[in-house]
Amino acid sequence: MRKVLFGCFVLLYACTKTSAAATIPPPTVDEQRGAATSDHFAVLAGGCFWGVEAVFEHVKGVKKVTSGYSGGTAATAHYNTVSSGKTGHAESVQVVYDPSQISYGQLLQIFFAVAHDPTQLNQQGPDHGPQYRSAIFFASPEQQRIARSYIDQLNKAQVFKKPIVTDVTPLDVFYPAEAAHQDYAAHHPTDLYIVVNDAPKVERFRQQFPQLYR
Questions:
Q1: In the list 38, 63, 72, 191, which could disulfide-bond 87, CB 3.0-4.6 Å?
Q2: CA nearest 125: which of 192, 199, 53, 47?
Q3: Residue 40 has pLDDT above 50, yes or no
Q4: Among the options 43, 45, 48, 77, which is catalytic?
């Protein structure tokens, strides 16, 4: 379950935690931009899906963002079950985008730079467990190639102080989460968890990628 922090410990955590934000270069390997013949999508996992969703909802060229679960079965694709950490699922987001406006590689750049910390293994901030792992669920060989190439590029450049631990794994099925989790940050902007953990991600995105922020 989501850990909720109160009082002085919240302020201490917010002030002393290592920022997930990093100024990183764009990928050298990416899909070609061009006229959109159809919408494309990416499925990404980076801790609590509330914050990852909140970031990508502000990206120009993104048409829809859905919180959900990837990596397990339909029978276990439910919040309370996934929270056990024993289902194989990761809290994920499906990002539907217009490839004439933004590329898959640019989405990954945002994902690694501000949406989460890709060096944390099976956790993000106060949330611990494999359901909060960093993962890219690729839907095509091209997405796999771009993702693996970009991780190699960032590791070789030592952009982060520690190696990237993001899983790159084939997408089986993306299961949308319950209605209460969709657009959670937008509907609950004063929620303490959102204020401490997720609103700063959106602000970092606005500052680092002003040309892509909406």
A1: 72
A2: 47
A3: yes
A4: 48
